[in-house]
Structure prediction request, 153 residues.
Amino acid sequence: MKLSKNNLIVRVLRWAILQKGLQKVAVPVIHYGGWPLLLPYYAIGIKFLLLTTTGRKTGKPRMWPALYFRQGQDFIISAHQAGHDKHPMWYLNLKSNPKVNVEIFWWRREYMAEEVQDEDARIALLSQFPYGLVDAYQDSTARKIPVIRLRPL
Prediction:
């Protein structure tokens, strides 16, 4: 099932992300054991990870939720920010320091982030996100949504 940019699920997720409620509320809840709250999303194939980047200005750790899917040992994430016209802060942090930590449930590991440069590969990866969510976000913005491959260290 592929969702259009006007679909209710896409609009609700966009609203949550743009209101920053997803980061300010979900990150602490998830980080401190609230993963069961995400089980309904996992049941329908929408998976989140917590991505910890290093702030490009402060040097402090910053934690962000991100949609993902697996490709072998790698994680694929996108800097979609629900189709907003600006890149998310975590993406800007990654550009200055690509070493990140990934947390899923109670599992943690270090990864190296690299942006997918090949346009055909980027488009193919965007289409693999569940329900066409990220495709719908790409349709609603003029900017090119970056796709990031996280490789284990």
User: Anything to note?
Assistant: The mean pLDDT is 81. The chain has one domain: 8-152.
